[in-house]
Amino acid sequence: MTKEYQYNTYEAAMKAVKGNLKYFDKVNPSIQTPEMVLKMVKKRSTNFQFVRPDLQTPEMALGAVKDWRHNLEFVRPDLITPELALVVIKYYGYNLESIPAHCQTPEMAEIAVGWWGRNIKFVRGDLITLEMALVAVKHWGHNIEYVRPDLQTPKMAMEAVKGWGANLKHVREDLITLELALEAVISRGCALEFVPVHCQIQEVIEAALKDDPKAKRFIKVKEMFKNALEGF
């Protein structure tokens, strides 16, 4: 259905703009002019969402976003710059998801992950640092899924599996020790699925089956599987 507008001529719209018109959604977009939209956005920054994309300018977009972060959603893609994106992230870190990867900077990524650890999911891979990864995994163990293998450490891996054993599947294999494997299966028996053969010793298997008897289907060593069946 075609939307009906209250102001459909330039003269009527400008008269309203100079008066008490607060909401620009009443003006037909086809009659918008640079002068008109600038006045309306200055009057109320939320009016930015009604500005025709071709009339947006870098200055207008930056000012609108500084005043109301949600305006980022309405900014023409080619006007989204690192400067504009940083304004949004400093104001509200959760918005990293809306920032194009090419606009992300190290400072922006650090602020966003410090604000909310789960933002690491949206950080461009090459911007993730060891410090950032540690913060993210400490915030929420599942975040190890988004940490590059070369940045993973024993401490980080332990932090991840303590909260949820199945996070072991995202841990670099050479970091999986008997201690880590045991911690993972104690947390969640079925994490045994991700324990490599050389770590599937009796103690680890027993701990896994104690938490969840169904974990026996993940026993990789036949001799151990036989022992497990006898004991459980």
Round the mean pLDDT to the nearest integer and report it: 92
Beta-strand proportion: under 5%
The helix fraction, in percent, is: 40-55%
Number of helices: 10
Low-pLDDT regions = none
Number of strands: 0
What's the gyration radius in Å?
27 Å
SSE-based structural type: mainly alpha
Overall shape: it is elongated
Distance between the termini: 66 Å
Order of helices and strands: HHHHHHHHHH
Largest sheet: none
What features would you describe in this structure?
The protein has 232 residues and is mainly alpha-helical. It has a domain at 152-232. The protein is 43% helix and 0% strand. It has ten helices and no strands. It has helices at 10-18, 34-43, 58-67, 82-91, 106-115, 130-139, 154-163, 178-187, 202-211, 222-231. Helix 4 (82-91) runs parallel beside helix 5, helix 7 packs parallel to helix 8 (178-187) and helix 8 packs parallel to helix 9. The radius of gyration is 27 Å and the shape is elongated. It starts with 9 loop residues before the first helix and ends with a helix.
Helices, strands, pairings?
Elements: H1 10-18, H2 34-43, H3 58-67, H4 82-91, H5 106-115, H6 130-139, H7 154-163, H8 178-187, H9 202-211, H10 222-231
Helix pairs in contact: 3-4, 4-5, 7-8, 8-9
